[in-house]
């Protein structure tokens, strides 16, 4: 049984140690069926630093931060959803974390778990992150890079951001980009196209 956890984050910068997670969007997919979808805007922890350029990219207004939900409340809500589909104490039952440039989101999400700890022991052991997710995550960006390896020059891709790569595959012309929930839908569509040949038994 394939248990996939689609994840996309908007963050207040690129340093997981000092910059906050500001938006968490996700979908829980079991054997191809979406069971849960969620989208949370998250208050920074005290002392975390927000890069104004990161807010500009994510289209988050600084004055809206005070209306966002408390981080521990968000994590507890996400954990309750995950507990419906995996057994926390079963080492053979976990989600495959999927995303675009997934290592970035995985690292920030892992740090978010730790920052939500209420005891030193929880922090030391990652506050349960490893009980929910297999390592490594599945990076759709890497799959796309492999697929486009021989065509990147002719496609004249100016960068390898999600929007740019999706456009190369005809995805997302009407999307409202720079929102984590939209990025998940784009990533899923891209992944479906990239893996279609594998699912149909293609060997090349």
Describe the structure.
This protein is an alpha/beta fold and 204 residues long. Helices cover 40% and strands 17% of the residues. It is built from nine helices and five strands; from the N terminus they run E-E-E-H-H-E-H-H-H-E-H-H-H-H. A five-stranded mixed beta sheet has the order 3-2-1-4-5, with helices on both faces. A hairpin with a 2-residue loop joins strand 2 (21-30) and strand 3 (33-41). Helix 8 (162-168) crosses helix 9 (180-199). The longest helix is centred in the C-terminal third of the chain and has 20 residues, at 180-199. The mean pLDDT is 93.
Search tags:
alpha/beta; globular; 204 residues; five-stranded mixed β-sheet
SSE inventory with pairings:
Layout: E1 3-11, E2 21-30, E3 33-41, H1 52-58, H2 71-83, E4 96-99, H3 102-115, H4 120-124, H5 129-132, E5 138-139, H6 140-147, H7 152-155, H8 162-168, H9 180-199
